[in-house]
Design brief:
Layout: E1 2-4, E2 13-16, H1 21-25, E3 33-36, E4 42-44, H2 45-53, H3 59-70, E5 74-77, H4 88-91, E6 96-100, E7 108-109, H5 116-124, E8 132-135, H6 138-147, E9 154-157, H7 161-165, E10 179-183, E11 202-206, E12 209-212, H8 213-233, E13 238-241, H9 250-258, E14 265-267, H10 274-277, E15 283-287, H11 291-299, E16 303-306, H12 309-312, E17 332-333, E18 336-337, H13 342-354, H14 357-371, H15 379-388
Parallel strand pairs: 1-4, 2-3, 2-5, 5-6, 6-8, 8-9, 10-13, 10-15, 13-14, 15-16, 16-18
Antiparallel strand pairs: 7-11, 11-12, 17-18
Helix pairs in contact: 2-3, 5-6, 8-13, 11-14
Amino acid sequence: MKVVFTLPRRTKLVYFGRTGHGILRNYITEEDFVVYENPRQILNFWVAVRMLMSGKRSEFAYYRAFLLLFRPDVVVTMEDNNVTFYATKVVLESCRTIAIQNGHRINLSFSRDASFRTDLRRLHQLGHDADVIITQGGLGTTFYRLSLPNSKGQFVEAGHLMNNALAMANVGVFEGPRRLVFISKYRHLNPTSTSGDWHSQVMLYLNDTPVTAMDYFRVDAIVARTCALIAREHALPFLVLGKRPQRQTSEYGFFAKHLTGLEWTYLPSDSQGSSYESLRTGDVVIHTDSTLGYEFLARGLRTAFISARLSTAGHPEIRDYEFGYPVITQSRGPFWTNDSSDSEIRRVLKFTMWAEQSEWSEQTKFYRESIFQFDPGNKVFCDILDDAGIANTGPRLWTRDLIPAN
């Protein structure tokens, strides 16, 4: 833990957490700001003293002391899944709060006893809320309406800020498949994590159901290998679009193990924009339940969903990871399936690879509009900043130098 001695003063804007700070600062130009840091990592001495004077010791008590000392007009965050943020309205009712959805939100947890949704719903009864929640689309809006059933705030659908900001110049008119690209969701493991029985350890809980790492990632291995075989049959290159940078080797090792004997290329994520820059005209994207896959679909790109993570893990009764659920309840469609069998993967890939462009657009239009939005230049976000009185650049697409590093 680092202790800082910055004297608190009334501040116009607070960034709640460092997550997405580089993205937000590419639009927000307000200079009168401070960043609220996790007190387990960076502790402000004066805020801690104010907390201790209150007679309470907790993250909420620390955040309460922080707000009372800095008294911001606006708090904005991309840590939308941190329940502490939603306490802002309890402490400073007049403060305007803006949460930006920064990932696919489902009812999962790293504890058997609680989840983000259940915690938020419980705290909502005590007044925890937000003025604006910028969701990625219908899926995010549905999640937050269930989590904050009596919210006084707005739910605004605007897609993903990063996706909206990048032009993806390498992608043009689709004239047939040229590469198959699988999006990885494999997590980074340090060297000690890869030893022993890591894969048999519980990775997360869905409701109160434990899911081990081996079960969780089984679908990634199955789908990647089947798609690599399909690519070979059609004499197409097969690529794995990495979630991790080159220096983190566990992701590459996972796919190297499961793609033994097949030709494939690994594309690491060396910047926050490299996954977008890696795509080319003619690419067909395959994934299980990646937010990035939803982003590509929202753009109209050829994207196949093999949303079978939990059915492959032996829990078909838990539907949270299925394509578009709960907005979409059908278990299969022209470009998606919740079954990781060879026949289903081939059926979905056949349509995604070979459908005429007019048919692809027609078959995906309803789903693109219903579950995930695309707002080039982030006009919606900038309008919300204007409404909150926060100086900003206005809508714009990024040049390469604006893309944050990993």
